[in-house]
Design brief:
Length: 98
């Protein structure tokens, strides 16, 4: 899917900002996961937490190619999966992160 400049909303950020924003996002994701790894002895569901994290990370990494393929049903299923696994990760780790 390509966006023509006449259809871009006025509040759309410039294209150069996308790279730095994703770098910050993936850095914070890595910090979150390293915090969980350092507390693995204290966690009741450590393996489940890791599974949720890996699945949501894989879905996030695959998202750009699926979105650009214009397969809207697959995109919808991926969005639902990303939300579900991210929320599962948050609920399982909420009490452990200081």
């Amino acid at each position: 899917m390509t966006f023509d400049s006449e259809y871009e909303p006025f509040f759309q950020p410039p294209g150069w900002i996308v790279g730095p924003v994703w770098a910050v996002l993936y850095t914070t994701i890595a910090i979150s996961f390293s915090s969980i790894l350092s507390r693995q002895d204290d966690l009741q569901h450590f393996r489940l937490i890791v599974v949720f994290f890996v699945i949501q990370l894989a879905l996030n990494l695959a998202w750009p190619s699926v979105f650009n393929s214009e397969q809207y049903l697959v995109s919808l299923i991926m969005i639902i999966g990303m939300i579900a696994f991210s929320l599962g990760y948050v609920f399982l780790t909420y009490e452990t992160i200081p």
